[in-house]
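Please fill in the sequence for the structure shown.

STRUCTURE ENCODING:
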């Protein structure tokens, strides 16, 4: 799994990249949880997302937001992090000029940035949000939601309460897009004891969408 440094808007961004299955492989960028609370691209849930896309044949990139570990720059409350995500998408598209569908995925804070990226990058055709921080951030900009996607949420999450994510999913599902919600019974925010179930939802959804 090659380590790379890509050019971001506030300095270089530390990243890991997995090539896809052929030049026409779909692409995915994975966004990690909040940098100020220990979130990095090596977070277990973010890594599970990365592996799920790689196993499905995607060319996939995960990276550290500005100011995290080897990435340059300073945390910017979501505004600069959106620019980081767009730079990562530009990098993976540039390096896969014959690519297939483009996806974005994120966990917690990364889910909010992923949702913002949906509205800023018209090439995106699919998304996965895990425990998106709907209790902390405004998702009203997803009106309407521009593409199909999957939201995964634990019922026992004490950081992002399940009702806030259920309300978000219900609102997005009222549009023309197929937005699904998968609830993981008993799972907390980090899915410590439910990683296998999390993986099952990811693998099943990606297999269905890419069939």
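FILLED IN BY: designer on duty
SEQUENCE:
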């Amino acid at each position: 799994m090659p380590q790379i440094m890509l050019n971001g808007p506030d300095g270089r961004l530390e990243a890991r990249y997995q090539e896809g299955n052929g030049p026409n492989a779909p692409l995915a960028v994975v966004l990690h949880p909040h940098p100020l609370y220990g979130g990095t691209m090596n977070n277990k849930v973010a890594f599970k997302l990365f592996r799920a896309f790689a196993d499905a044949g995607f060319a996939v990139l995960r990276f550290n937001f500005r100011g995290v570990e080897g990435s340059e720059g300073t945390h910017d409350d979501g505004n600069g992090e959106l620019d980081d995500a767009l730079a990562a998408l530009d990098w993976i598209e540039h390096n896969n000029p014959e690519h297939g569908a483009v996806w974005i995925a994120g966990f917690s804070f990364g889910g909010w940035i992923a949702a913002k990226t949906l509205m800023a990058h018209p090439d995106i055709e699919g998304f996965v949000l895990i425990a998106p921080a709907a209790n902390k951030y405004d998702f009203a900009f997803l009106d309407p939601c521009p593409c199909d996607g999957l939201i995964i949420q634990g019922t026992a999450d004490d950081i992002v309460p399940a009702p806030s994510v259920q309300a978000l999913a219900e609102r997005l599902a009222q549009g023309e897009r197929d937005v699904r919600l998968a609830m993981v019974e008993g799972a907390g925010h980090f899915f410590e004891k439910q990683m296998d179930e999390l993986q099952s939802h990811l693998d099943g959804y990606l297999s269905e969408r890419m069939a």
